[in-house]
Structure formats: structure tokens, C-alpha cells
Amino acid sequence: DAGVTQSPTHLIKTRGQHVTLRCSPISGHKSVSWYQQVLGQGPQFIFQYYEKEERGRGNFPDRFSARQFPNYSSELNVNALLLGDSALYLCASSLFFSGGSGNTIYFGEGSWLTVV
Amino acid sequence: GENVEQHPSTLSVQEGDSAVIKCTYSDSASNYFPWYKQELGKGPQLIIDIRSNVGEKKDQRIAVTLNKTAKHFSLHITETQPEDSAVYFCAASMRDSSYKLIFGSGTRLLVRP
Asked: Mean pLDDT over residues A6-26, rounded?
């Protein structure tokens, strides 16, 4: 079975532009989360979606938004890009939205965003 | 607030030796503690995890221990190999309306041949 897949793998954007990142969870997984990983740091939680509803939001500005589609895939959108948005954006999937028994979180390979 | 501290930040060991990485967490309600290995240019790969109802878990050369009273957990890698060289992250789940992980700052492990 395929793991968590993300696209694009790399992209370069200019300050002020908009970016859309895409994620397909592991087959059968209904929860998708997004994390931002700045170079040299651990991933930071941005959003969690479960059954197309937002279940959690991290400490990120309103320029960041996301949605989940009926097939459980997800998009992360970032408006008005800043240089500081340059990072690896990771998508993670899990079966459920809470930490019950067996509910493991798996990450994709990420989308590298460079803002110039 | 929510916090996971991880030590050491870098660790260099001789091939065949053991490596230990330690983490402490702040939220006593946390119940899930995964460890991820991240190689250069790749996403985090789950290597082992433990839940709060278990004190120790082993998978071949890798083991994790959890002390709920002290709120700390550790990763133990025995018989290290050069391919174990990577950055390792611990994480703890936070019990709120979502299912999110709070990550430590990472440990760069170098296994010298």
C-alpha cells in the first residue's frame, strides 16, 4: 500500500505569492494533519482535519488555511508568502482523530517550499 | 505550556556501541509517545512508539522506555550501525480537541565506522 503522498516535492515562490500543497493520506485513514518544519527544528503542528472538519489549529496566522475533501485528501494553502514561510511542509495521516489504541501517525516525505 | 525537551542535541558513537536519547514532556495527560528518524531531505519515519499504559517496548535493536511519574521517555539503540546515522525526534501527543504531536528539538546521531 502507498504511504502518505505529497505534491509538489519542491517549489520556489516569490514573497507575496500564494501556494497550494497537496496530500493524499494512507488508504483508509480519515485524519490528515499538517506540520511545518523549519531547518534544524522539529515539526510544528499547523492543522488537523478529520471527516472534512477542522479539529485543531496550531499557532499560525490566518494566512494559513486548509481543507479536506470527500476522498480524505487535503490541501494546505498559504497566502501572502513571507521569507519566513520557507520550510518543509509535512502531511501526516492517521486512522482516527484521537490518540486511541493503535492510532499511529505516519508522515509523508514533505513539500520543500522556498520563498525568495 | 505544551513542551517536549530532548537531549542530547548531538550524539556521536562508535559502531557497535549503544545510543540513548532522552525526552521529557510537560502535559501529564499525554498518552502516546512516538519516535521518528529523519534522514537528510526526507520526511520523519516512525521507528517505534509507546502508549501510556506500557512501560517498555522493544523492536529488535530499538527499545523505548516510559516513566509516567517522572514524565520522561527514552530511546535506546543497541549495536549501532552507520545506517542509524540520522536525526531522531521524540514526540508526545497532546490531549485537547485534536490529535497533535509536540516534537522535541531533535538529536543528530552519528555512528562512526
From this structure: 97
